[in-house]
Amino acid sequence: MTPVRSPGQLSSRLGLAGLMENAPLGILFTRNREFYEVNHECAQMLGYAPEELLGQPAVMIYPDENVYLALGLEAAPVLAAGKVFHAEVELRRKDGSRFWCRMQARAIDPMQPGRGTLWFLEDVDELHEAEEKLQRALADQQLIFDNVAIGIAFMRGRVILRCNPWLAAMTGHDVADLIGNPARMLFWSEADYQQFVTASAAAFAEGEPAVSELPLRRRNGTIFWASLTSRRVPGAGDDVISTIKDISAQHAAEQALLGIQAQLEARVAERTVELEAAVTQLQQEVFERLQAERRAWEMAHHDGLTGLPNRALLHDRLGQALEQAQRDKKRAAVMFIDLDRFKSINDTLGHAVGDELLQSVAQRLKNVVRAVDTVSRFGGDEFVIVLHEIASPDDAVLVAEKILAVLAPPVCLAGGVIRITPSIGIAVYPDDGMDAVMLMKNADTAMYHAKATGRNNFQFFSRQMNEQASRFFEMEHRLQQAIDSDQLLLHYQPLIDWQRRAVCGMEALVRWNDPEHGLISPAEFIPVAEESGLIIPLGEWVLRTALAQNRQWQQQGWPLVPVSVNLSPRQFRQKDLVESVRRILAETGQPASLLELEITESSLMHDVTETTARLDELAAMGVRVAIDDFGTGYSSLAYLKRFPVHKLKVDQGFVRDLTTDPDDVAIVTTVIGLAGSMELDLLAEGVESEEQLDVLLGLGCHKFQGFYFSRPLPASAVEAIFAPPRLQGIIRP
């Protein structure tokens, strides 16, 4: 009976299937000399569909049985020794054509050959073809060298080792006369030769070719002018290749032209003095005109009081924002801001004070938005902000919160200390309107709704968005209080080394015990923390608390084991992550070797260059790095091998049906083989039964984590953490 897979299991399977299908080389899994598993890259390389190869004898892809048997005899002792077998052989495609292939293989279990072998194939046919092309190219180069109409000399230590017939004809020597003699024999004088040597040394020091024009000597003693271009042969010490061209006719023409040029320059100098005066006057007139046009444009498009864009420029910027949002399939937002009770300030303190207040508000608003956003004065005490390319309405919430915060402090003006509050209406493209007019109208409507609900707040035009924003804001506020008031706690789940029958580490897992709502699932509050930025202080709290707890256990006499801490994508992209980790290690007195950071595949692939640099810094400190839930993402093997990663954690989705689903067995087998070939530590997550444990042990996995050994426990259950019930009585120190 075929097992029924849940959506989560299918997603995990697709994840590792994506890993195999995106591998930049062919992957074969053979058992009993038959194809058991093959990826698309491999099948395409051989000219078959994947299903055409499954179950077929492996000999079918070789030119003949003798080649196949010879390869088997060569590979058998290597695979039996548990080593990686390497070879280059000629294979046969489905259409009968042949190609050269580079192969690597490793037995799943050297002690049990029947369990199969994992093969990695790379088409190197082009390399063989390239070698043949290289030989033909060398022959062509020799033909060119002998027949090119320019002199060529190859020198080592300033001695001519090789030259072409054209150089010999140009200088009146035979080729044999030149070879083995110093290059000095070609120069007219010692001074000319030393000039050539000095110029060449200077150019070579800068990594550039040396170009000289000097008189050379023919065998009969006559002089001719030549252009010499010399290049140092890369990586060959003092080897130099020079090309020599006879430019005697060109040199004579240049000398004649120099005389004419001297006369012309004298005439040009006289005319230049006259023109410079005229140009200076013209430049001054052009500059003054441009300045006037600039001032006129600024006055036409900016508010005279605050210097902000006015209505005309606002509509232009809003139109551009909507066009870009439509093109990139992004959101944009319009925020309509009205100052509460501004009219009474104008009436009681005067327009001069009101103008100062508007200028202060304008500056504060400019300080809370990005450079790409637009802050404009719409008129009177009304301001409009255009937010370009926002990911979700939550981004508008964050900006609105910043506006409320930045306008909260009182403003000190000539009229005294004044407090001002805003009412903010928000409309989001495309949800609340597809054009500028509709968005402005709906944002204005939402602003009046904000005034009606008590002022000094913000409201979305959409009721649904308003409710979502309220829930987000409430959760963010409560989470901030939880961080500040010690409502968070850590549970610890041990990592098991079955060969040693010992705990080899533990993973720290955060929990939130809310006074009103009880325990809140991390799946509910971690996304809010990630979106709002609270994940940074939350993550630092988890790291500091876990390391401090580990130190306390060590002082109590418990074994030294590393503690694992998960890093969210936003934490990993944090610019001061490495410094933060270094600081917390110093504060808690823990060595870096006792810290393991778990990072998801998607976090690693965000920015490969930056990721590699950050992981290198962590590895240099001694911190271990593990890829969590391995196989559920789409890592590129080409990049994975560049990362200084120490451990792969097999996702529990592959472990759950391991006893009933042969596909999961094949996937886990591949991951184990991958970890072994890359010399990475391996641990299986989500082990919940003895049957799963037995299968994993049979596949060669020896480190585990899951409910079969222990659920996550509070720090107070230290004995159960370091001595899980499944290991009691057999645990080793």
Write a concise keyword list for the protein shown above.
alpha+beta, Beta-Lactamase, Alpha-Beta Plaits, flat, five-stranded antiparallel beta sheet, disordered N terminus, single chain, 733 residues, ten-stranded mixed beta sheet, 4 domains
Account of the protein in words:
By secondary structure, the protein is of the alpha+beta class. The protein has four domains: 23-129, PAS domain (Beta-Lactamase, 2-Layer Sandwich), CATH 3.30.450; 148-246, PAS domain (Beta-Lactamase); 311-461, Alpha-Beta Plaits; 480-724, EAL domain (TIM Barrel, Alpha-Beta Barrel). Strands 18, 19, 20, 21, 22, 23, 24, 25, 26 and 27 form a ten-stranded mixed beta sheet that branches. A five-stranded antiparallel beta sheet has the order 2-1-5-4-3, sandwiched between helices. A hairpin with a 5-residue loop joins strand 3 (85-92) and strand 4. Helix 15 (463-484) crosses helix 16 (522-532).
